[in-house]
Amino acid sequence: MTSRTVSRRRLVWALATLTCLAGAAGLVAVPSAKADRSAPIVGVAGKCVDVQWSGTQNGTIVQLWDCNGTNAQNWAGIGRQGTLRAFGKCLDVDGGSHDDGARVQLWDCNGTGAQDWLLENGQLINTGSGKCLDAFGGAQTGTALQIRGCSGVVTQTWAASGSPQVAGPEAKKGVATWAFPPGGDGIRDVGATWYYDWSTSGSDVPAAAEFVPMIWGATFVTDADLATAQRSGRTLLGFNEPDLPGQANMSVEHALDLWPRLQHTGMRLGSPAVAFGADTPGGWLDRFLAGVRERGLRVDFIALHWYGSDFGDEAANHLMQYVHAVHERYRLPIWITEFGLIDFSQGAPRHPTPQQLVTFIDKATAALQATPYVERYAWFALPASGEHAAHGLYREDGTATEAGAAYRAAGRS
After folding, report:
1. Quick check: 390 and 340 in contact, CB under 8 A?
2. Would the CATH topology of 22-160 be identical to that of 169-409?
3. Which of 1-15, 95-109, 297-311, 389-403 is predicted least confidently?
4. Lowest CB count within 10 Å: 4, 37, 247, 310, which one?
5. How far apart are CA 79 and CA 114, in angstroms?
6. pTM (predicted TM-score)
7. Residues near 53 by beta carbon (within 8 Å), at least 6 away in sequence
8. Cβ pair 332, 300 in contact under 8 A
9. What is the structure's pLDDT at 6?
């Protein structure tokens, strides 16, 4: 729609600090009088740090997985600096690497910095590299863990099971916004863990949430804008409604020609978000993704927009039918980066009643939360002012609309 960051919430570790002794070699040992605490480590979307297939061989992948109470998710050493251990082996950075993206694995404990971890402000910092444990790429079950530069994003936030502030399914929930008086306060109050504003920088709407930058259209494919996007986040949204003359207005071929510039950022990439027809054979997105395959390019997830003109009880089902059809066609994770109930068919927008909006939000967010391939969703829009007063979430005085109150409750039950 227009042009403008979520970010993630930092979690506080409610862990007891165990007394540690420093040995002559500089290694940390636990006094025999103290028990070495074991517990699951919970991260984004309430999922656990997990040893793949409960393997015990050196090099076994450590991943994000649905918490299940098995020993593959039971880690000793939580609550102090030192090693984190499962099955008697240590959480280890492959090859002692300091590089972003270096994988994390299970390995024989050897006293190196690759196996030394520091708990600090809800982050697990590998002291050998100075980088953080990260479920880079989102909250999908099976995401392999790695280290990356510490940035406080939600995928770098960890807590012991039982902490009252463990990240939960609300990690999916975000908002689309632009600068307005409540700004960051509205983002915090509604419980959004991420946001975007159609731009490459969240400086206009600073907030305690993960900002996701966007390259809105062809004129923003510049060295300066791409560098700003890299500084502003780790995931990059592609072109905004390139199928509409009033928006990015790009041919499929032009978008494909520019796409390597976005891909060269090394960021996780969301597809261009078409205004409609993402599931249509031969449609704009279908042809774009065919071109991506033919040219050997990369798209990591599909970004969708959806606006319903039927304000009745089936509105949420209509949304989910569309989301399901797109996933079935492309088999990629889904982000719904704009959605709402607005009827554009008669020229001037027609809006639902506040109660119709509340009913839709309750049903739609429950369905989105429960759908594994939906990674994130964002309501359009946070501000409820001017032409957006009928469907926005927060008024300029900072109070929530009926829709805002319903969206605030989403993902918290």
Report:
1. no
2. no
3. 1-15
4. 310
5. 18
6. 0.63
7. 60, 72
8. yes
9. 29
Interval 286-314 mean pLDDT: 96
Element (H, E) at 194: strand 194-196
Q: Which residues of 306-342 are buried (b: 16+ CB within 10 A; e: fewer)?
A: bbbeebeeebbebbbebbbebbebbebbbbbbbbbbb
Q: Is the pLDDT of residue 322 over 90?
A: yes
Strands (E), 95-166: 104-107, 117-120, 123-126, 131-134, 146-148, 159-160
Q: Which residues pair with 339 in a beta bridge?
A: 306, 379
What are the sequence ranges of the domains in the chain? 22-160, 169-409
Q: For 228-250, write each residue's pLDDT tens digit.
A: 999 998 899 999 999 999 999 99
Strand partners, 91: 106
Is the C-alpha dihedral spanning 196, 198, 203, 205 positive or negative? Answer: negative
Give how far Cα 392 sits from Cα of 306, 313, 342, Å. 15, 20, 11
pLDDT of residue 1: 54
Q: Which CATH architecture has domain 169-409?
A: Alpha-Beta Barrel (3.20)
DSSP string, 298-342: ---BEEEEEEES--STTHHHHHHHHHHHHHHHH---EEEEEEEE-
Q: Helix 315-330 and helix 354-370: axis angle, to 10°?
A: 30
Q: Does residue 9 surpass a pLDDT of 80? A: no
Question: For 57-105, what is the HEC assignment?
Answer: CCCEEEEEECCCCCHHHCEECCCCCECCEECCEEEEEHHHCCCCCCEEE
Residue with tokens 């027809």: 277
Phi, psi (rounded to 5 degrees) for 341: -110, 105
DSSP code per residue over 176-193: E----TTHHHHHHHHT-S
CATH hierarchy code of domain 22-160: 2.80.10.50
% of the chain beyond a pLDDT of 90: 70
**Which pair of tokens denotes residue 108?**
């024989």
Report whether 354 contacts 401 (CB < 8 A).
Answer: yes
Q: Are 176 and 393 spatial neighbours (Cβ–Cβ below 8 Å)? A: no
